Amino acid sequence: MKKILIISNMYPSKQHLSFGIFVKNQVKALQKAGIDVVVAANDNPATGKKNTISKYSKWARQTIATAFRHKKELSVTHAHYVFPSGIFSLMLKKMFKIPYIVTAHGGDIERMAKKNERIRNWTELILQESEHVIAVGPVLAQQIEEDFHIPQEKILVCSMGVNCEVFKPGDQAEAREYLGLAQDAFTFLFVGNVIKQKGIEELLLAFEQLQLQTDRPVKLVIIGSRRDTQFMETIDPLIGEGVQFIDPQPQAELVKWFQASDVFVLPSHLEGFGLVALEAIATGTPVIASRVGGLVSLLEDGVGHLVEPQNAPALSEEMLKAIQTPKASYYNEEAAARVLHEHGEREITKRVLALYESAVKGGEAR
């Protein structure tokens, strides 16, 4: 295999550390495995019509220039997010007969493809023309099969994986001292974009109810981008004592927050997989999450604790249960170890490399 071109509409930068960090992590894992990787990605998370047109125009020019520069060396392209990233892979296949695979992450199927008929048709065409489709969770895979008429044998259910050399257990007291957190407070952690779809409103309501139900000091730390100013204004009345917002952190620092916390909470309304929940598990932090999408298969069988989405009372009840239950009983180490083996970075990289080889052979056969 020669070179792999990774195309993604999300990729981190020094200014935006968490924006598509999972794509960069996979790139680094592929490079570690000896693969020559070229990246053409958008690293600008700016929203709004004017910003979107500007950043995507710049990304399109960069992607086309990169593809033309390396076209004779590319074995396969790998698009992250079906639309719009997959458009470039489809174009390169038509122009230069370079095979491609595409990873559906959830939002591209759940939200983007439902915006209008034109995007839906593009999504279906990109999926059908690909050599293989990666779905980050089984619910997402079923949706792709049923809604876009993609054969089941063409779809691989495969998460982005977690690097257990980075995300690993640590001493909680040391982590709290390092971060300046109180040692006695039971601390809940959320990591992700601070937007409505992540269930932040329900989380704040649940935390407020929880404070009325326990005498123990409790804290809620929310780490993530707060670019949605309108939503921030909506939830402002719910932000009370004990709630702390933190800007996105580099992974070396983020690990400390996981290690310092008692429980990780992910109350999303929808979630293709929920990689951040897997990162919490890797650090030995118990997880409470919504019963949606890939979180169901990830956290079932005792790996985590599931509650109904958009249900603040149910979430508050589970958070109270977490406080009242010893960690040894609330975090199932055996189940966690099984999940971490299945979704470990090395195992995931092997599966992706096998898919690349299959895509190349399929392209050669044509």
Task: Summarize the SSE layout with pairings.
Elements: E1 3-8, H1 21-32, E2 36-41, H2 49-70, E3 74-80, H3 85-96, E4 100-104, H4 107-110, H5 117-129, E5 132-135, H6 138-148, E6 155-157, H7 172-179, E7 186-191, H8 200-213, E8 218-223, H9 229-235, E9 243-246, H10 251-260, E10 263-266, H11 275-282, E11 287-290, H12 293-299, E12 305-307, H13 312-324, H14 327-330, H15 333-342, H16 345-365
Features:
16% strand, Rossmann fold, 6-stranded parallel β-sheet, single chain, globular, alpha/beta
Structure explained in plain terms:
By secondary structure, the chain is of the alpha/beta class. Helix content is 48%, strand content 16%. The mean pLDDT is 95.
Summarize the structure.
Helices cover 48% and strands 16% of the residues. By secondary structure, it is of the alpha/beta class. It has 2 domains: 3-161 and 344-365, Rossmann fold (3-Layer(aba) Sandwich), CATH 3.40.50.2000; 172-342, Glycogen Phosphorylase B (Rossmann fold, 3-Layer(aba) Sandwich), CATH 3.40.50.
| Strand percent estimate | 15-25%
CATH architecture of the largest domain: 3-Layer(aba) Sandwich
Sheet with most strands: strand arrangement: 2-1-3-4-5-6
Q: Major sheet: size, sense and barrel closure?
A: 6 strands, parallel
Instruction: Determine the mean pLDDT.
Output: 95
User: Low-confidence spans: pLDDT under 50, at least 5 residues?
Assistant: none
Structural class: alpha/beta
Question: What series of H and E elements makes up the topology?
Answer: EHEHEHEHHEHEHEHEHEHEHEHEHHHH
Helix content: 40-55%
CATH class of the largest domain: Alpha Beta
Q: Give a count of the beta strands, DSSP E runs of length 2 or more.
A: 12
Radius of gyration: 21 Å
For CATH, the homologous superfamily of the largest domain is named as Glycogen Phosphorylase B
- Per CATH, what is the topology of the largest domain? Rossmann fold
Integer count of domains: 2
Compute the number of helices: 16
The termini sit apart by 17 Å
Shape: globular
